[in-house]
C-alpha cells in the first residue's frame, strides 16, 4: 500500500540526493527520516521484546536477503511477533558484501564503518579485493594495522584478503573522519576471480558548529548635491565551511528616506483590527510574563486592553460560535479562517477573561467543518477576502 506519506518521503530522498549542499535542510527535519529504517526483506523470527515491553527488530547480518519467504505471522510470548511456517528457498550463489554506517555524523567526528564479506560461491577464494570509494574527502584510521592496506588517495581505499574459505565470512572495522559537510555516498566493492558485489551507503555530514563573522566598513559620506560611486573590495579566505554571505547597507538618515517607499501597508478595518490587536496584546503579555514584569503599570494596561479588544471581537461572533466579516455588499459571512484565528487568540493562557461558552461553541463550529480525511473545508466560495477555499484548497 503506497500512501501519500511514502511518496513524500521518497521525494525527499530524491531531493537530498540531487540537491546542492547549500540547500540541505537542518538535521532536525531529517531526524525522523534517519531513524526510520529501511528493510529490504522479511526474516523469520527476528523480533525480540525488550524489558520495557517494546519489540525490537533484529536484522539479518548476512546476505542474501531472499533466503526465507513468509507465509504467515505468529505471536510468541518470549520473542514477540514472528513469521510462521517459513519456506526454505534455494540459497543464492555469489560473493556478497554488507556495510553499516550511521545516517548522520559531524565534521571531524570519528565514525565506525563496519563491513562484512560472505563467500557463498561454494569454493575457496584467493586474493579477494575490497575497495572503498567516497564522494567526499575523509581520513582513515585502520583498526587492524597488522593487515596491510593501500590508500591511493583520500577518496579510495583498497584492502586485499589473502584467502576466504567456502561459506566463510570476514568482518572488518574502519574508522572514518569526514572533512566536508553534505550528503556523502560511500561505495563498498568486493572483487574476486569468480564474481563480486557492491554496497552503497548514504550519510548526512553536518557542520559541527556555525560561526558568524561580521565585517563592518565605512565607505564614504554622502553630502548634499554630491554623488559618489566606487568599488567595494573585501578579501575573503576560501573555506569549505563557508555557507552564505549577506550584504547590508545603512547610513545616517537613510532609513527615514526609504521608509515610505518600502513599508507601505494596507489599512486594517473591522474584525481584522480586533484580531490583530488581540494577538499583539497576548504576545506582549507573554513577554511581560517571561521577563517577570507582571506587577508593573504596563502589565495592568495590557490586561485592560486585552479585555477591550475581546469585547470588540465579540461584535463579530455569531450564535453558532463562528466569527464573520462584513462583505462589500454589507452581508455578514461566517468564515472558518477567521474562526480558527480567533479561537487561537481567545484560548491563549494570557487572556484575562476565560469565556468557556464561546470556546465550546467555536470549537464545535470548527470541528463540524472537518472532513473524513482530516482536512477542513469552508462552505463558501471565498472564506475571507482573497483567501479562497474549495475541494482542492483546504
What would you note in describing this structure?
With about 400 residues, the protein is α+β, with helices and mostly antiparallel strands. The chain has three domains: about 5-50 and about 60-90, no CATH class; about 95-205, Sandwich (Immunoglobulin-like), CATH 2.60.40; about 270-390, Glycosyltransferase (Alpha/alpha barrel), CATH 1.50.10. The protein has seven helices and 20 strands. The protein has helices at about 5-20, 30-35, 255-260, 270-290, 295-315, 335-345, 355-370, and strands at about 45-50, 55, 70, 75, 80-85, 85-90, 95-100, 105, 110-120, 125-135, 140, 150-155, 155-165, 170-180, 180-190, 195-205, 325, 330-335, 380-385, 385-390. Strands 8-16-15-10-13-12 form a six-stranded mixed β-sheet, with no helix packed on it. Strands 7-9-14-11 form a four-stranded antiparallel β-sheet, with no helix packed on it. The protein has a two-stranded antiparallel sheet with strand order 1-2. It is elongated, with a radius of gyration of 32 Å.
Amino acid at each position: 500500500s503506497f500512501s501519500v506519506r511514502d511518496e513524500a518521503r521518497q521525494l525527499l530522498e530524491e531531493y537530498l540526493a540531487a540537491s546542492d549542499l547549500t540547500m540541505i535542510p537542518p538535521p532536525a527535519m531529517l531526524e525522523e527520516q534517519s531513524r526510520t529504517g529501511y528493510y529490504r526483506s522479511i526474516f523469520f523470527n527476528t523480533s525480540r521484546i525488550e524489558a520495557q515491553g517494546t519489540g525490537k527488530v533484529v536484522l539479518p547480518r548476512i546476505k542474501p536477503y531472499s533466503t526465507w519467504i513468509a507465509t504467515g505471522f505468529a505471536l510468541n510470548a518470549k520473542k514477540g511477533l514472528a513469521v510462521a511456517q517459513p519456506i526454505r528457498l534455494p540459497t543464492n550463489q555469489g560473493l556478497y558484501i554488507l556495510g553499516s554506517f550511521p545516517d548522520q555524523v559531524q565534521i571531524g567526528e570519528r565514525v565506525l564503518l563496519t563491513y562484512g564479506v560472505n563467500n557463498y560461491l561454494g569454493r575457496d577464494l584467493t586474493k579477494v579485493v575490497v575497495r572503498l570509494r567516497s564522494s567526499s574527502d575523509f581520513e582513515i584510521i585502520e583498526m587492524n594495522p597488522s593487515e596491510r592496506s593501500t590508500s591511493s588517495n583520500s577518496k579510495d581505499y583498497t584492502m586485499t584478503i589473502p584467502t576466504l574459505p567456502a561459506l566463510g565470512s570476514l568482518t572488518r572495522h574502519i574508522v572514518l573522519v569526514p572533512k566536508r559537510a553534505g550528503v556523502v555516498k560511500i561505495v563498498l566493492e568486493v572483487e574476486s576471480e569468480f564474481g563480486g558485489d557492491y554496497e552503497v551507503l548514504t550519510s548526512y555530514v553536518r557542520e559541527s558548529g556555525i560561526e558568524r563573522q561580521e565585517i563592518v566598513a565605512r565607505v564614504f559620506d554622502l553630502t548634499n548635491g554630491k554623488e559618489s560611486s566606487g568599488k567595494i573590495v573585501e578579501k575573503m579566505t576560501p573555506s569549505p565551511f563557508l555557507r552564505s554571505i549577506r550584504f547590508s547597507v545603512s547610513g545616517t538618515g537613510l532609513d527615514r528616506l526609504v521608509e515610505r517607499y518600502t513599508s507601505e501597508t494596507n489599512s486594517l478595518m473591522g474584525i481584522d483590527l480586533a484580531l490583530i490587536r488581540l494577538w499583539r496584546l497576548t504576545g506582549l503579555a507573554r513577554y511581560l510574563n517571561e521577563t517577570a514584569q507582571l506587577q508593573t503599570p504596563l502589565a495592568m494596561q495590557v490586561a485592560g486592553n486585552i479585555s477591550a479588544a475581546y469585547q470588540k471581537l465579540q461584535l463579530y461572533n455569531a450564535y453558532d460560535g463562528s466569527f464573520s466579516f462584513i462583505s462589500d455588499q454589507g452581508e455578514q459571512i461566517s468564515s472558518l479562517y477567521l474562526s480558527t484565528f480567533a479561537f487561537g487568540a481567545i484560548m491563549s493562557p494570557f487572556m484575562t477573561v476565560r469565556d468557556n461558552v464561546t470556546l465550546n461553541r467555536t470549537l464545535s463550529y470548527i470541528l463540524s467543518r472537518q472532513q473524513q480525511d482530516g482536512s477542513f473545508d469552508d462552505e463558501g466560495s471565498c472564506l475571507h477576502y482573497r483567501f479562497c477555499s474549495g475541494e482542492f484548497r483546504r
